[in-house]
Structures are given as structure tokens and as C-alpha cells.
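Hi there,

I know you've been waiting on this one. I reran it after we fixed the sequence typo, so this is the corrected version. Both the input and the resulting structure follow.
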Amino acid sequence: MASLSKPVEDLNISDLATTPVWEYAIDEEESHDETWVRLVMVLPMDCLDGRLIGTQVRLNNGMMKRWAVLGNVDLKTPRSTQQFLMLWLENDGRWFELAR
């Protein structure tokens, strides 16, 4: 069986289109470092702690759709999300991190 974990930097659009939610695999640190993630197959969920969410977003020009990965989303405390949101945008196969 193929591994369900991979380094976060290896996530790609195909991974996100198939499985949009990934979580940090911190319990696998004996075999991987803390940057590895694994897919989350049980949806919906009520907590996004330690998870990354892949989705398509429409840019302000209204025409272009891009893949994005969101992290540090707190479903219960919008202010925390506002302060700590992490966002990566994809453009032509390259990811750009937009830090708050």
C-alpha cells in the first residue's frame, strides 16, 4: 500500500483535488520530520487544528482561479484566524506563501 504521508512541500494540485484536507503527521516523527502531512479521509470535521485545506480561489480580477492552501484556521475563534492565517497560492506549478 502506498504511503498516506508526504512532506508538505510535495503536496500538489492533484493531491488537493483528490483529498482537500491534510494534517501534520506529528505522531509519525520517528520515521519522518515535523513537516510531513497525511491525508484526512473523514469529512466533515469540526476542528482544523494542525490541518491544511486545499481549495480553489478566485482572484480579485474575477477571471483567474488558482489553487490555494489555507492553514491556521480556527473555526471557533475568527480573531485567531485573522491574526495567524497562513495562505499559499499556486501559479504555474509554483507555490507562493502569503504571510500575514
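Quick highlight: Residues 7 and 35 are 6 Å apart (CA to CA).

Best,
R. S.
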